Amino acid sequence: MADTSPFESIISTLPQALKDEITETDQYLKALRPLKFKRTIDPKAKKITYVASDYGISYMFKISGTELAHNFQWYIVCCGKPETWHRRADYMEETLSYIAKTDQPLSERIFNALKTCPGSDNCYDQRCLARTVYTFSGQRKLTCHGRVELGLLHNDFCDAREFLRYFNELVNEKIASKEPLPEKIIVCKTKRSL
Fold first, then answer.
1. How far, in Å, are 123, 130, 134, 159, 193 from residue 117 at the CA level?
2. In sequence order, what are the beta bridge partners of 114?
3. What is the pLDDT of residues 165-178, one digit of tens each?
4. Can you list the pairs that 15-19 forms with residues at least 24 positions away whose Cβ atoms lie under 8 Å?
5. What's the whole-model pTM score?
6. Which tens digits make up the pLDDT trace of 11-47?
7. Long-range contact list for 42-51, CB < 8 A, 24+ apart?
8. Does residue 25 sit in helix, strand or coil?
9. Which alpha helices (DSSP H) does the chain contain, by range?
10. How far apart are CA 39 and CA 87, in angstroms?
């Protein structure tokens, strides 16, 4: 019997339909260019994470007993002192508008799936540095920095892959027009985090 990979091992106890969705998403993310997602596996936390660091976006599956979770987000690098924490300028609003040109329902589902910030002052040290306001289609939402919480149904996985397909297209257009990578922002200095 052949040894299983850490990826196969971590999803081995899941129902077949969920294993299939995660495997399809894994292959899809690793093939996206120019985003170049890199996969890491944390067997202790039973977590699979994909990071496209040039664009500050991550995708995560948490697989531990009754705690199944599935999300993507514009992440914040929060190691070291809070005054060094940073993120990339994100493209959430721009990507939603880009998607809305051809698939308004998808852009609305993603916007509605943004996790609402609970407003806690102790999310990160003394005050929440992840709070971010997004505006889309005349609506405003105070979020946990672009975290999109998804379900575990086929349509949820399809929505995530479609969002990332559109985002990848947008990035390709930015590269073609020779735009630089998104800027690095120190979160304690931006009004979007207040």
1. 10, 8, 11, 22, 11
2. 148
3. 999 999 999 999 99
4. 17/154, 18/68, 18/152
5. 0.90
6. 998 999 999 999 999 999 999 999 999 999 999 989 9
7. 43/6, 43/9, 43/10, 46/10, 48/7, 48/10, 48/11, 48/22, 50/26, 51/75
8. helix
9. 6-11, 16-31, 92-100, 104-113, 154-176
10. 19
